[in-house]
Design goal:
396 residues; 15 helices; mainly alpha; 68% helix
Length: 396
Amino acid sequence: MMKHTTADRPASGALLLALVLASGILGWAWLLFEPTPAGRALSFSLLAGAVFGVLLQRSRFCFFCITRDYVERRDPNGLLGLLAALAVGSLGYHAVFGTFVPDPSSGRLPPDAHIGPVSVVLALGAGLFGLGMAISGSCISAHLYRLGEGAFASVFALLGVLLGFVLGFLSWNPLYLTLIADAPTIWLPGRLGYAGSLLVQLALLAVLAWLLLRFARTQPHEAAALSVGQRIWRRRWPTYVGGLLIGALGVICYLRVAPLGVTAELGSISRTAADSLGWLPGRLHGLDGFSGCATAVKQALLSNNGAFISALVLASWASALISGDWQPKRPAVGQSLRGLLGGVLMGWGAMLALGCTVGTLLSGIMAGALSGWVFALFCLAGLLVGLWLRRRLGWV
């Protein structure tokens, strides 16, 4: 029988700080709660962001990391977790869409769902995002939760994301007028019906799962006996557990406030700053008419998405403190520069694609948007190019 040492337990100071952070999030949500739709939305966004942060941190739900695990070690567990999230989310989204759009062939789209135009610009944005993930070492959502683990290189990546959004805004008008304005917005239930769309998506996810397992390698398993507390807080959760819960959370978030997404607030901060400096054109054609991780000049200090990502970082910090994953690291110069460059590419790509791996890919595919599948394909292509560059340049 395995003995548990004090090293297996979080320090009392860490537990206290984690409790303070958790209490702060709950108190913040309570203070913001008002018997109005806006107050309820803010409170729910805080709580949902906290749950999302814990799920990301405990299950290591990073799109770059789980893809690299398969490419380099043929470990399918992370990508299977992503497929699990997409399957649960697709079931939930298709179940609730009938309430909003009883006849999917009517030409109407579900309100606020991440269903975007399919164009060369979407492919370009996805490729840039995938390349940026590989260069910086994480996707945007993972940089947010790793910030909570003390990975301060993520600060440079997130600053790069803000700069990348500015590049996206500056390049938007000519791309929109030539390539996006007439691009089709394809919603699979609108073409196949709810049953047909769901069957196609689940069949495709099943085929992808079979392919992952077909070419996987056997991975070593930890044989040590663990207590329930250690399984929850001292060891990473299987990614499929995080995936199943994230898929369910995505459906709840769509019903209550908005689809899952982490770039709307970052893009709005960037747009507000650039606009105040006079860098942006007087009008960004068509941008504010698209669903997705919408950006706008900020009118209020705290938005729903701002509350969501703030709670994400704080909750992942609390989770890291309890689990012992809080390990502050001062980044080397090269790591900081790679984070900045990768962040610029991710921000530019996310702006052009109207979202990132959470908004356009995760929420988009759950909603039956062809744009989500296109983003996934070209993001993977960019990521593979980035992995090749990392090997050639000797980046760890």
